[in-house]
Amino acid sequence: MTDDFIWMAGGPQGSGVDSSANIFARACCYGGLHVYGKREYSSNIKGLHSYFHIRVSPHEVGAIVNKVDLLCTFDAESVVRHIWEVSSGGGIICDTEVFETKISSIISLPPPFLDEFKKTLDEKGLHPETVGDLLNEVKKNNVRIYSIPYLDMLKEIGKETGEEQVSKLKRMINVLSLGASFGLANYDREYVEKAINMIFGKKPKIISINLLALNKAYDYARQNFKDAGINLKAVKTDEQRIFLQGTQAVALGKLAGGCRMQTYYPITPAADESEYIEENQVFEIEGSNEAGGILVVQTEDEIAAITMATGAALTGVRSATSTSGPGFSLMAEGLGWAGINEVPVVINYYQRTGPSTGLPTRHAQDDLRFAIHASHGEFPRIIVCSGDIEECFYDAARVFNYAERYQTPVIHLIDKALANSNKSYKTFNPGLVNIERGELLNEADVAGRSYRRFEFTDNGISPRLPLGTPGAIFWNTGDEHTELGHITEEPMMRTRMLEKRMKKLETADKEIPVDERVNFFGDKDAPATIVSWGSPKGAILEAMDILHKDGYEMNFLQVRMPHPLPIEYIEKVLGKASKKIMIEGNYSAQLAGIIREKTGILMDYFILKWNGRPMSTDEVYGALKLILQNKAPLRQVLIGGS
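Below the sequence we write its predicted structure tokens.
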């Protein structure tokens, strides 16, 4: 096989796209292969188009690429939407019945898509009426068409299982296409059967009928399409691996980091994390006979979510809430209350497109400045941005240390691309997670003395006592207050108290190691430096590897903590660069603006994207190569993705 094999499944929401992709990916993982998956879905419950893009390789992969080697379609719309993404030499699996479908009759295709599709056809000089006409055209580009009689197969399955109503079996099309995929690829079906058993758990009837469908389509593909030219081989490995989604990595990181209270109001894509924690509320503690647990509360709205998490944090419990842009907008007032009361609460903030509802299920990096400045007034908060799913795990644990050490809200910014991507990794090590609770007092520490919750200190951090500790009293209020917490409007007290709170950012800036705030990749003396944050990391690293083979040298500064920004380190790195390139998933190059504000350094080039889809390796590579060849404009806008 080639280094990469890209498989995609597409169909209506609710047709089993996700389950088929998870089976495909896990089957490849069981065979020792590395996997990266990208999930795209529409913002309705059922009916509109969704697809899952799986990249498989014997080597580790960390981003998507804009091509497909094997496209599995569950309906006519999927053929039309993705037909131009299939690479020369690739193939399309489709139902024999779609050939006669008129393109104009596919009512689920929205007018904006049809307008762009017609432009593409006009450019190619094509005028197809049916899906079959379209498939015949791509055959000329050496794309193979694998027509599968889904209905006949479902009837056979019905006879063998005693199910007379074929309509009840139509969801099996996803497994039929899966069986055909692995049959075409000549992949060991043992791994596929193992994946089906894992996905459907303790449901023997469902497992049995799915295995029947899998093997029927697998055998059909082997018998009828012997010249597929695909050879997906397993790789021997002793490495223990996991395959998980970004939201799952965050959830597991929280458990490892000692989070014991989680609040949320359902919102895409953040709710996936809370629901996963709910499924694993009780867990084993390694090296102990004891069980651990976390309380998860679905609140009536996001205002309740942030205030309930804040209340739990006041009692000394490590607590968090998870949300996305619209929910965080509602949390702003509660965030301010936590800020003035120096509460160590964590907000896991999953970015999606805005403003307002925007594209509720699509990717963005639009909210960096909002996270830094949310809520009225000035108060410290720490912002952490993960760049891949592994970082999501360790960052989700570490942010509780920052919150408690500096007694301030911490916002963990995660892109939707990471939230809904899946990747295989070497098993994470919870032993690398350290718990640092900061200046947390107990009853004995305050016995016989007056406790001042907001005591003035040189570093801005006052010793903290859990609410309800016997023998100690303090007050919390949304108003400005004295060291005891009593409301005050005196100008000198206001001046000192605000300075005390803001001093925490200076303290954090001095104390948090630079290797927790940035990552640096490549030759430090390379003439060109890329700066970015969040999910573009994988595409950038892969593009750099390709450019290195082309003879170009560059380095990459990944900013993981944009607030407080590690100014001196950034100035040192960018001071050496003859070409400074910013890559971000937003319109206004928000991190570039923050760097210029803090350092005075202006970027030379911008590579930006805001169409709701993540960056791919090949489009980042192409944009960077233009810059290195001195052929690029100041600002390149990427538009890849379907």
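The chain has a mean pLDDT of 95.
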